Each structure stands twice: as C-alpha cells, then as structure tokens.
Amino acid sequence: MSLLLDIATTAAILYAVALGLLIVFGVMGIISFAHGAMMTIGGYAALLVTQEGWSPWASFPAAALAGLVGGAVMERIVLRPLYRRPLDAILATWGLGIVIGQVITLVFGRQVQFAQSPLSGAINVLGVTYSQYRLLLVALAILLAGVIAFILHGTRLGLVTRAVIANEGLSQSLGVNSARVRFASFSLGSALASLAGALVVPLSSVDPNMGVPWLVGAFMLVLLSGSSLVSMAGAAIVLGAAQVLVSTYLNAVLGGMTIAILAAIILRIRPTGFARA
Amino acid sequence: MLSGSNLAPSSHQLPPAALIGGVLVLAGVAAVLAAPLVLDIYSVNVLTRSLLLAVAAVTVDLLWGYTGILSFAQAAFLAIGAYALALVSTRLGFSPGTGLFALLLGMGVAALAALLVGWLAFSYGASLLYVSTITLVFPIVFVQLIFAGGNFTGSSSGLSGFDVPDLDTESWFRVAGLLLVAVAALAVTFVRSDFGRLLVAMRENDLRCQYLGIPTARLKVSLFVVCAMVCAAAGWIYAGATAVVAPELGNFVSGTELVIYTALGGRATLAGPIVGAVAIDAISNFLNGALPFLWALIVGLLFVVVIVALPGGLLSLLRLGRERRSRLVPDLVEAAVQTPMQDGLVLQVTTLGKRFGSLIVLKDVSFVARAGDLVSLIGPNGAGKTTLMRCIADGRERSAGTVEIGGHSIRHLPPHRCTALGVGRKFQTASVFESMTVAECLRVARTRIERPSLFRRTPTIALPAAALEVVRATGLGDRLGVETRHLSHGEKQSLELAMVLALEPTLLLLDEPTAGLTGAERARIGELLVDLARRYRLCIVLVEHDLDFVRRISSRIIVLHQGNIVLDGGVEEATQSETVRTIYAGAAHA
Amino acid sequence: MPDPTELLQIEGVTAGYGATMVLRDVSLRVRPGEVMALLGRNGMGKTTLLRTVAGFVQPKSGKVVLAGYPLARLPPYRVARRDVCYVAQEQALFADMTVSENLRLGVTSDRLYRDRLPDIEPHFPVLLKRLRQKAGTLSGGEQKMLLMSRAMLARPRLMLLDEISEGLQPSVIDRLSALLVTQRRDHGTAILLVEQNVAFALATADRFAVLTSGLVVERGEAADTGAAERIQQHMKI
Predict the structure, then answer these.
(1) Is ipTM beyond 0.90?
(2) Model-level pTM?
(3) Least CB-CB distance to C235: which of B489, B546, B584?
(4) Coil, strand, or helix at residue A272?
C-alpha cells in the first residue's frame, strides 16, 4: 500500500514539475533548459516567505508570480529573436539557467537552506501512515492539471493556444497573433515551473542547484508525451512506478537513473512516446 | 575533359597550405615546450587542465560545429579515461604496464559507451533534440554509476592519492600540450579533407546524404566513438597530472561547459573551442572569493549574448573564425562506369499500397518500367504521386505490395540501401548542400562509389559520363568553385541532377524537375532527360505538372488519381483519353 | 497610385520560395463585392498568389494593396485582421478540434460567434447539428461546408478561396455557387476564387483570369461567350 502511495506521489511530483515544460514544448517546440533554474527561483521564493515569517501557503503564489515575471522577461528579450532557431533557443535557455543560478548564489549564498512546509506530520491512509504533505502534493498536482485543462479547453485564450499548438500557420491566417501566444505560454510555463519548485522544497531543501536533478526527468517526460496532458499523466505514472519499484527492490542509485534510461529506450523504439501517433 | 574550363589554377595550391600547417604545428610544439619556462608553477598546473579540457572541446566542435551533433557527453568520456587510470592505479599500483592497460581500458570503455549511446541516439529519423537529450542522459548515468560504486569508485568524494607516472608539473604540461597540438593538427587535417566535407554535408542535409547512399547513422556513430576515445586519452593524462578524480569531472554540468567554451570561442573553427576552453577555464581558476561566481555569471551572460547575437562565437568578431577554405577547384575527369548499362526490367511495382492510419493514399498500384523508358507520372493534387516516389526510394514507407529494382526487392531497406540497389532520387525542392561549392557537392555525391580521403582534398573528381554531360550542358562546369547558395534555382536543380547521376543509378526518380524553371531551362532539361534515357539507357520516372513538357519528352504516361492508376500507356493514348481530360477539367469528381 | 474603386490591387508581383520564382510579374485587380476567378493548371502559381496576398509569402517585387492599404511585409495575422479570410486548400481545419471550436476560431471573440452562428442555418443546417463532432471525422464535403461557414462568420471584405470545390459532388457544388453569389450580394464580400473546375468558376464569378507558368495569359468577363473555350485552351492536357 505504501508502495502504491509512493508511486502516486512520485508520479504527481513528476507531473507537476513537467507541466510547465510541456506547455512550452507544445506551443514553442523547444525544451527550456532554464526550467530547473525557474524551479530554483520558486524554491527561493518559498524560502523568502519562510524568512519573512509569512504563512507557508503564501509561498505558492509568491513562487508563481516570480516565475511569471521571470519567464516573461526571458521570452521577450532572449527567446523571441531565436524564433527560427529552436536549437539555439534551447541553448540560450541553458545559458539563462546558469545566469539565474549564479545570481541566486550571489544573493543568497551557496549553503543549503530550508523552507517551512505548509503541512507537516503524517496521517493514516488505508492502514498506512503517510506524510500529509506528500498526499497534498498528489491533490495539488491533480488540481493543477485541472486548472490547466480548464484554461486550455474552457477559455478563449486556451482555444487560441491549442490552435497554435496544432498548426501555427493556420492560426495566423485566422488572425491569431502567435507571438503573443508564445509569450503567454512561456510566462505561464515558467510560473508553473517556479510553483513546482515551491512544491518540492518542503520535501528536501533549498540550494542554488536544487532544480538541476529534476531537469532530465522532466525533459524525458515531455518528450514522451508530445503535447498531450493526458499522455503525460500516463507517462508520469509509468516512469514514476518504474523509479519507485527499482529504488525499492533493487538499488536507490539505480532508481535515480531509471527514468532517464527507460525513457531513452522507449523513445528509441517509439519516437512518439506515449502520445497518440 | 573539363580541366580547361576552370577559372582558378588548381593543384599547385596544395603545398602552401600544408606548409602553413606544418609551421603552425611546429610553433605549437615550441610554445608547449617553452611555456613552462616562463610561467609560474600555479599557472602551469591550471593550464595543464585547461589544455586537456580544450582537447575535449575540440571533439565537441567536431561533433557539433561540423557534423551538427550537439553532445553533452564528452566530459563524461574524459572522466572515463581519468577514472580508468585512478581505479587501475589504486588496485594495482602504477607501472608502465598497468599504465598502458589503464589507457587502453579507458579508451575501450569510452568506445563501448559511445557505441551504446550512438546506437540509441543516431537512429534514422531521430530528431536533433532527442540526440542531444540522450547525450545529456549519459553523464547522469555515469555519475550515478560512480555513486553506486561505493568505496570501489570513491563515490561522491572521488579517488585521490593513487600512484601516477613520476613526472613533474612542467612535464605533465608538455604532455597535455603535445596531445592538444596533435589532436588539433589531426582534426584540422580531417576537416579539410574530402571526408570533412562529408561531415558538413550530413549536418546540412542528412536526408540528401542518405539518398546518396551514405550510411549517415553509421558514420556518426563512428565519429562519436573516435571522439570518445580521444577524450578518454585526455582523461588519462588528467588523472595522471592531478592525481585526483571526482564525479564532477564527468557530470553534465562539465559537459555543458565544454559546449559553452565551443560556442563562445566559435563553432566550426577548431581554434574557437581551444581558445574558449583555455581562456575561460584558466581565468576561472585565477579568481578568488565570490569572483568565481561572478565570472560564471559573466560567462553565462556572454553565452546567451553570443547565441542570440553572434552565433559564430567571439572568434568571428576577429574574423579569424571564418573557415578558410582552400581555393582548390578540382578538375573533373571521366570515371570508368562501375554500373553496367541496363537492359530490360528496371522497376517493378506490384500492388503497392500506402495508408496513413485510416487515410488510404495509394491503393493497388502496379506498373513496370524498363531501361530507356521515360515514364511521366501525372495526376491532380493529392493523387499520391510524391508518396509513390517515396515508396519506391525508401523501403520502409509503403504499407503493402512489393517494389523491385533490377530484380532485387527493396523489402524494408532504408533510403541509403535502396540507393545502393540503383535508385537515384531527385527531390522537388533542389536538395543540395548550401554552404558547399559545386565541386564539393559533386565530390560528396561520389562517396558511395569512391570513398573520400580522410587526409586530403583530391585534386580531381571522377564523374560518370552522364553526370559530366549534365555539368557541361548546364554550364556548371564553369561554376565549380561557387557556393551553391549563390546558384540560381535552375542551376541548383541541374546540380542535384548531376549529383544523383554521379551515383550511377539505374533508376532515376525525379519529383517535378521543371518546378520554377524558365521556358529555356525546361527545354534544356527535357533534352537532357531524353538523352539520358536513350544514350545511357537510364530508366527515368518523373512526377510532373507541366503537361506540355510531359507530352514532349515521355515515352509513357501513367495517370494517378486518388491513389489509383487510371491510365498507363503511350502519350497519344493519354492525350486522347476522355477519362484523363475529365479528371483534369474537374467537371466530375468521384 | 492606389485606386479607390479597386478593393484588391496586385501589381507586377514576382514571388516564390527561396530562389524559385513561381509568380512572374502578375497583375490582377478585384473590385469590391466582385467574384474573380483565378484559373489554371496545377503548379502554375495560383496558390502562391493567394499566399502572397495572405501574407505568407513576401513578394520579391511588385505590390499588393488592399483598399488603399499596402499589405507588403504584414504578417499573416495582421492581414487577416484587415478583414481578409484565407481558406487554404490543404490543412485548413483543426482536425482534432470540434466543429464549434473551428468556427469560434474564425471570429475574434466568442460573443461574435454566438451572435453570428444563426447565419449558417439557411445554408448548412447539418453543421449546426454536429457542433460537438471532431472536424477530422467529417466527410470531405462537410469539411468544405465547415470552411465556408467559418469564412462566412468572419464577414470579411475579401475571401481568398483555394479550390473550395475540390472533391465535392455536383449538387453540393451548385449550392456552394449559390452561397458565394449570396455572400457577395448581401454582404458585399469580394471573392478571389482559385479553381480548376471551370464550370463552377464561370457560374460563380463575374470576371476571370488564367495563370500559366506564373503569368496571367487570359482575362475576361465570365459572361462572355466563348469564355469557357478560351480557358480550356490553357487547361487541357
């Protein structure tokens, strides 16, 4: 039972972390290497909230806001000129990630710090004592997915975004300013990344490189999902399960590699991954 | 013979380039030997490491700048070489024997790892993003494996204090420097050779290379393996010089730093990564306190600025980075044709079908074509003509039926194997290599038949008579030294035709050869095609919209409509046919 | 000098892709509320001309002027916002989206969509019953109906239609013809109609032009006797 919960929470965390990346990939066709840095920004936003003595719940909106602003600036200044050079855009996001990491180091220092968790302690779930916060994460991941799904399918902006994802040229011929859609998508994606950072901080700690270990797992998840929120949920569950099972029954270290290797092999065999062909 | 039509003198250009190269190598060696005499010991120490990172950066440039493969794994290969020496030395102590063993072990493991990563990454149809992501995964796996090794590998603290060759700091510097000079010299020779042009061709237009019969995936894996071994050798020296190894040496942060050095210094220059690595790495080691972070910040910012505004890297500012290509314009000579002239059945298509999910594009298509035939495939938009072409040239495309070239079934062979069976495919949009000269494009086109040299630019290119005729008739013979991006559309089409003919195909597939051509150009290409079919007994199948052109040159016409063959017969029969007229007039649709 | 009596002026346009010039010195004028048919065989440049007007292709020389306003260098979405509706021949629909979503994307706000949806009733009532169906699952004819409906909802000044009749049954083509004439009469929409179906084109259009190898080789009034023959000269195999 606790194994199932582990799988659920791992999948939920993976999903939350990769959600922003998925939106950016769908709309802009690039994988943002700055994603880890945006998560770190979110983590430090949570830290600031703790240091200011505010309610830990405030860390979520604070992180999202920081990510939104950061993403907007990045898109406007660096990514827009690279519209026709997607591989260079990806490299540029890596550079930006480094810059952000160094700025954070200069401002906050290198040491590992801790932010306060909004919810602590454990509760009894179906015969197993389990961390409340981790369970909350599952709920939050589902909530986030729901919100994004609502925006995409229930609003005009979402409709237009889906149109750009499906066929940018056709959208343009229908009067859609796709540059603005890209701007909005990248800003939203960055906000989600930072939010994810704040979400994972209570599980471990805050340091200038905290986002880095999540990067590759998130990339692979997105590559496996194409542009589909649903495919990504499926992929998150499969990869999360694999990691948990390997970590539990074999070796924790191997568990850390599982996602990357498994995803690489899946993509080799089926380049479309989990997405419907 | 076309040697008289070259504008630039040819072969006596070679020696001066080799001379300059020789002088540079000697200068490099001299600098390496002399430097420790003028620098303080700390600098020598730091520079030794920088020089070895520069070796790894050179491999990054070879893979990325020249071949288009963005690899984040090179640092990991270097770390493999370093760990090999550290582990062997820790277990067995150091001796010339164990040292050699460690070197071979490191290079061997790196080669195997590169083979595995290459197999994963370079499958046909893999996107560039996927390739780079796989090369990102490898260092992560490497680091995890080191962690998993516990005490054996030193885990996160690394290994230190192991026995190393008894050389002083200055000597290690010289060893590292000489390796760099050697690697740089070999790399420069390699990229300037005919094979080096092939790398650029793969970067610019991998698909075209496949259809020229070049096994691009295999070549990329081979290059990747060689680069991995070079990095491992540098790693061996690294471990020897520093007597410390740690997982950070090979993690993906180090891997991305090599990419940054290359990008900042200047891609596709070989000098760029060297300058970038030495400068950035050395400087970061001379900074104290908070400055290293500031420096890393500045480097990061510079990197972003360079990517956005100065893709050629900083060297391009000095205009040194520009790849100076020799003015060598080779002579064209006639080659002894290896493929005998055909007679009889060249192409046999039987009940070929193609569907995309539930959408049926081609259904039950059967026809044959013989040597000397000039078959035109016509039909309205969406009839499936280009799809049919693809199914003939690529064994993996069709959903049903068989295709035989000269009696050999193409089964599920990828394009480069179909080309080996005799298929020459010319694309609708002139698919050539934009940054290469006409002569270089022709040279690459001959790759399947004549292996390119790894060391030199051969001064002559041997082309079969058919290709030579196209070159002569279209005036390309006077433009051999011109970069193809400066050619007119008609000239590019002619060049592509010549390139395909250089393959000595038995079956020529042309997709809209007259697209975008002027009336005069159409007439000329029409004459050429008729000549090719008649004199050289080529079997030509072409897709066309220009019906006057089709009527003038075809020996047979096949009409395709909504995925089916509606008519297969002579020109007269097709022009008189009521069915065909109806299809084109659009008065009634099925 | 832009002529106020012309809605669309194409003057001396040379355009193409990369080094390939598909259009050579093409000149064409469309008056407000007129249906102009552009005919010619495949690969002769008709689609390229529409894409040039729509802003997807930048002309190498010449100009394109809409109601006195030059369209050169405008990105496609800006051209669309100048009340130009371009219906491409291929990939003109979002196959994975519903009929309703496709229609909504044809206008700039959902409010307009709701207000104008009844416009479709007299012409394509069957569509209104399929609003929740995925566009990709519609038949070929129904997809064309959807495209026309989307164009109608936009109430543009100028419609650019690329082979809208392709793949349709004769009865549907007749209805389409009537629809376009109504559109022109009731809403003053000018239509540049690219076609290979000569009968449909002549039944619908006021004037015609024939494009061969990137040049206009024939022009006239659709009502002229002998127009069909003149056109067929250029179309036949």
Answers:
(1) no
(2) 0.86
(3) B584
(4) coil
